[in-house]
Specification:
InterPro entries: Frm2/Hbn1 (IPR033877), Nitroreductase (IPR029479), Nitroreductase-like (IPR000415). It is found in: Cytoplasm. This protein is α+β, with helices and mostly antiparallel strands. It has a single domain, classed as NADH Oxidase, CATH 3.40.109. Strands 1, 2, 3, 4 and 5 form a five-stranded antiparallel β-sheet that branches. The longest helix is centred in the middle third of the chain and has 22 residues.
């Protein structure tokens, strides 16, 4: 089996994260920057934007998220929510993924024939980028889990870190040292997912 497939198998949702990663903050930024630059985008739009939250900023995000979720969560469920968010805060950092909507709009105007597809292609590029970054981190034995608290946290994130209004938050990748492995993964039957014709 190829190294690539082995890496894909290694890229799992890890929820028990710590702060003792094999890479420094600078090395994480360098790795992720390289991966994002090499990830494909339709029309080479390069619409992905990334914000790194380390240390206090990382913990601030999850504290902020807790405050925003409290009034939206039934009281009987909130303790579980708090524990989950505490687990995220225990990690090393959060990588925020955005898409630049100005680029999408500009391409829609420039190539009117494909206008309705550009938002779709933007989402596809975002997903590709997130998966590529996650896999690259897994290769370095850095655990991660991908969260989607947008749009609930969008306004607070933009205000706290001065994010441009045209950057649309698409996901939050929580990363850190792997304190316990992922659970066993269950797979659907191949016959239910794949068809082949000769």
């Amino acid at each position: 089996m190829s190294n690539f497939v082995e890496l894909l198998k290694k890229r799992r949702s890890i929820y028990n994260l710590g702060k003792n990663t094999s890479l420094s903050n600078d090395e994480i930024v360098e790795l992720v920057t390289d991966v994002v630059r090499e990830s494909p985008t339709a029309f080479n739009s390069q619409s992905q934007r990334v914000v790194f939250l380390f240390d206090d900023a990382h913990e601030k995000l999850w504290s902020m998220t807790e405050e925003l979720l409290k009034p939206l969560t039934p009281p009987e469920a909130f303790e579980n929510t708090k524990e989950k968010l505490k687990g995220f805060a225990n990690g090393k950092a959060t990588i925020l993924f955005f898409e630049d909507t100005d680029i999408v709009k500009r391409l829609q105007e420039q190539f009117a024939l494909y206008a309705e597809n550009f938002p779709i292609w933007s989402e596809q590029a975002s997903g590709l980028t997130q998966a590529n970054v996650w896999t690259a981190l897994a290769e370095k034995n850095i655990g991660a889990n991908l969260q989607h608290y947008n749009p609930i946290i969008d306004e607070s994130v933009s205000s706290e870190w001065g994010i441009p209004q045209n950057w649309k938050l698409r996901g939050q990748l929580v990363i850190g040292s792997i304190e316990s492995p992922a659970l066993e993964k269950e797979y659907m039957e191949n016959a239910d997912r794949f068809k082949r014709f000769n």
